[in-house]
Amino acid sequence: MTCKLVMIEGLPGSGKSTHAQWTREILTGFGQETRLYLEGNLEHPADYDGVACYEAEEFRQLLTEQKDLSSLLEKSSVRRGDRYFIPYRKLREEDGADFPDFLASQMFQHDVYELPFERHAEVLAEKWREYGKEAEGRYTTDIFECCFLQNPLTVGLIKYDVPKQDIRQYVRRLEESILKLDPVVIYIDQQDVDRTFRNAVEQRPREWSEGFIEYYTGQGFGKNRGLTGLEGTVEILRYKREFTLELLDSLRLRKIILNNTAYDPVKSKAELRDILESLAVSKEIRDI
Question: How many whole angstroms separate alpha carbon 86 and alpha carbon 52?
Fold first, then answer.
């Protein structure tokens, strides 16, 4: 199987996690070795979750201010060029009470997903380049949930409301890093965005929906257009879906849209299986 990367994308509540898990199940059944990375995985090879980014001078200042923890911070940090990356969320979970609240809050301000857009895009593009080179030498197929399209759109559109062209360039930089992996994007489409999001709100904890709505309407795209509440969030999600499909159409890699509007698990899993079976055909045969 030449495809070394399957990326499952879609809006919240579309069924991304379920389809990602099915993908692993089906490919494993085909005898293919896989690695599954769901949203929020702290060990993601191409993304950052709960990781703070410091420029060299900022890092030196942090060590000076946190002398009691400087040894831990130096040991746990990873240097890439002139930047230092600290997995503060992982440290927090591992060290618990030994990792103070105020330091976690401070590091959140330096989170990769809190960086200014251009700096954020540069940091992620470098991470994807490293991943692409590393993955070329393996025979496993990685399965990513939502970090290829939804994360760049969430930061560029929802958080910062940057021009669409800037987001396109960002995603194309990521695409360029993985083309040698013969990747495919499977977009789990939900045509009824209002119903999809309302279902997600009903099924998930209240804290999730309140935080999600605030994130989508309290900054960037939503705030600039005066969109508020659940209805405003749905309107933003509709726009995000349209832009995602437009962006997908412009990419060079393979992309497949799986319509999951009916939430029919038997039909969707069967369709997904057919898609994955087609990936087992060698790239050379497809290119004839």
Answer: 5
**Selection from 131, 136, 132, 175 nearest residue 152 by Cα:** 175
Per-residue model confidence as pLDDT tens digits over 167-199: 999 999 999 999 999 999 999 999 999 999 999
Q: Which residues contact 26 (CB under 8 A, 6 or more apart)?
A: 269, 272, 273, 276
Contact 76, 91 (CB under 8 A): yes
Residue 104, amino acid: A
CA distances from 210 to 109, 115, 236 (A): 21, 23, 15
In whole angstroms, give the CA distance from residue 206 to residue 238: 22
Q: How far apart are alpha carbons 150 and 282 in whole angstroms?
A: 28
Query: Are 129 and 247 in the same domain?
Result: yes
pTM over 0.90: yes
- Dig out the tokens for 149 from the structure: 């399209």
* Closest by Cα among 109, 76, 67 to 94: 76
Calculate the CA 255 to chain-centre distance: 17
| Same domain as 60, residue 41 | no
**86 plus 139 within the same structural domain:** no
Q: Which residues contact 93 (CB under 8 A, 6 or more apart)?
A: 42
User: How sure is the predictor about 96, in pLDDT bands with cuts at 50, 70 and 90?
Assistant: low
User: Which of 81, 180, 173 is closest to 128 using CA atoms?
Assistant: 173
- Give the number of domains in the chain: 2
